[in-house]
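Handout, page 2. Input:
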Amino acid sequence: MATRKSRLLMLIDDEPAQSRLVTAIAARDGWRTLTVASGEEALETLASPEGGEVRAILLDQWVPGDAACDLIRELRAARPEAPVLMLTASTSPMLAIEAMRAGATDYLVKPIDPDRMLQALAGATRAGRPNAELQPMTEKLPHPVDFDAMVGTAAPFRTALAKAATAARGHAHVVVEGESGTGKDMLTHAMHAASTRAKATMRVVHCGGVPPASLESLLFGHEKGAFAGAFDRQKGLLEHCDGGTLVLDDVDRLPTHQQERLADVLDSGIVRPTGATHGFRIDLRIFATSDFALDELVEAGEFSRELYDQISATIIRLPALRDRLGDLPALTRYFLAKIGEQPGLKHHSIADSALSLLEAYDWPGNIRQLQAVLFRACVFEQREALTAHSFPQLAEMLGDQGDRGESRMRGLGVLLYTDDGNVRPLEEIEADIIRLAIGHYRGRMTEVARRLGIGRSTLYRKLGELGIDNAA
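Output:
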């Protein structure tokens, strides 16, 4: 069996610059990269002795539509055990759907996010790939841009939203903390939409996905001739966002010297591009996000105290999904509604057996992971309702734990669907509701009737018709 150091990635791509980038990113996690320029060359290589070492395939979707999907099918047929990841500049959910149905394991959108690519490779090549269903997808469903559209009633989540709504109307910089996938990106967009700068420029910089040298020019700009290769003047985003908002995603990933330089800019209100003899006065607002608690990084000497003091007037912490599992049914139905609006997909309901399974999982990837799992299930499920059978890998991972979620979080006592995904007869559901109400109100039939919105005589008539013992 190949060791971690000898893992070989086949890249199907004819762009030298991108090939070098993928090779460099993959090498960070011990991958060697074999680049081929076409599908034909890829299939020939897979049939060769060298091709026998390939552990994963990354396909740049430069061919349109069916041709890419046909190639995916051929690659999977030639090497069934090797996961195929598609890389594309398109954010079309339809392309993701067709690629997945053709056999793609995951779907990456350009420009390449290094961490996202390595995460996809790691998940796709894990022994037995038990988590393949759970890998985050990069297709972008429409996200809410206002607070009222953000789903959840859990106390820590509503507290975070209330704090964010208040901060949005102010003028100070804001830090949003929370584990990956908790919704930091959506929250910063909602804050910008609710701010006095809503009609001004908003730009997002993924600090961990840009090489340090490029990031410096991207943020601060540079003058022509400032360094080798600076053939033209570049206006930095700090200057470009004057009057607007700049979102620094994963701000903790900024190199130390850039943290210090940014702190000076925010303190003085003046940005000086690299190589410039003068600066520009700017007025912008920073929304910074981090997967970690920045105050702890400051204490550990891993983040600039000066920058922290500049941007931390308001700190908002988004809870992990496992800390707000009571919101999972509402989130699930919200995502299913959004997924059902995408071309090539239909609206799905969800059976209690499936909700129970979802609630039994701890969701290390949080809301983004939940969305990805639901998206994948909708791609392959032909029936109207998603059931536990729609999530086979999740069910395999949880084993006997998969039936604990319903009683743990919802305690409804009323199932709406049969195990095959069909709706139960109305008479059975009505009987369960009445039994539930009798137990909940401890047999006080007047209260039961009042809460159900029917008269006592009607209640007793239904008890007789449904064969319910009023001592239930």
